[in-house]
Amino acid sequence: MQTQIDSRAAKLPLVLGGHSFIEQLGNDPAIGPEEAVALVSHCLDRGIAWFDTTYMPERVALGAALADLDRRDEATILAWNFFQEFGPGENVGEPAAYGDADLDRLCEELKTDHVDLLVVHPVEDPLEQRRQEELASSWVASGRVAELGAWAPPLDLFGRFEDVPYSWVIAPFNPFTRRAHEVFEAARALGAKTMATSPFGRGWDLERLAAASGVPMRSAVAQISDLMLRFSLFDSGVDRLVVSMRRLEWVTANAASVAKGPLSPREHRRLADLLRISQS
Ligand SMILES: NC(=O)c1ccc[n+]([C@@H]2O[C@H](COP(=O)([O-])OP(=O)(O)OC[C@H]3O[C@@H](n4cnc5c(N)ncnc54)[C@H](OP(=O)(O)O)[C@@H]3O)[C@@H](O)[C@H]2O)c1
Description:
alpha/beta; 10 helices; binds NADP nicotinamide-adenine-dinucleotide phosphate
């Protein structure tokens, strides 16, 4: 068990998105257990050592892959309060407030004894929300959860950070969805770290821009994915970026984009032009 996130294995600020392991919310078909092992191994070997698992089947797939590889110790695992079991084509379900037995359940599904970063997706009932935050805080105090993350908190909820030991703020951020920039800046001011998700808007926004570009689809996707990933990752408010990738080639391509660094002014203009064309 560890009480602090150990990032030694993470050389890149990318996090493998949990939706890589399910059929829903992406473009390519779902991957099977053997492909999941190959994907996790490929990520770890290239310095992508943080893994998100939003949904229950994602926890099971990642846990099995890390156990098969015997590489749990190299991984930093994120887990969330989505508990529904589902298969291909089925509804992925809604978040539910953490309950007393849920940390054991998450750990069992992930085949681990601790969660590195537990994300609290808010629930509507304020009393339930308060109760789940108290419970999550107690898990941090016990050492079975290293850090807590808040999903997409509105700016006016930052008072909550005084009562709950949140150290991360996580929210979608890409050229179509930019609101989180302000939240990230505010989180940084409170000493928290920030994680953007969804640089390609599930891949659907990437396809939208590629289709509008007038460039043949394959090379358009290659060029525009590079621009979109660097737009999200190198925003001044962002520390890490969660991206889902079912294909090994996406891991290689996205790692190469990280190595290029921030967008140049010319690349920013190109992205802005593409956005304008796609929205006209
Ligand atoms: N946005 C939210 O509401 C939300 C909520 C909770 C958690 N998250 C976390 O954020 C993660 C990422 O968000 P997301 O999955 O919604 O969207 P995303 O990462 O923006 O997009 C993923 C899609 O982009 C494609 N892709 C990845 N790299 C590519 C490349 N180099 N070239 C071409 N296509 C590429 C993937 O294709 P393939 O289909 O081939 O893999 C996948 O369909 C999730 O997996 C999850 O862990 C997001």
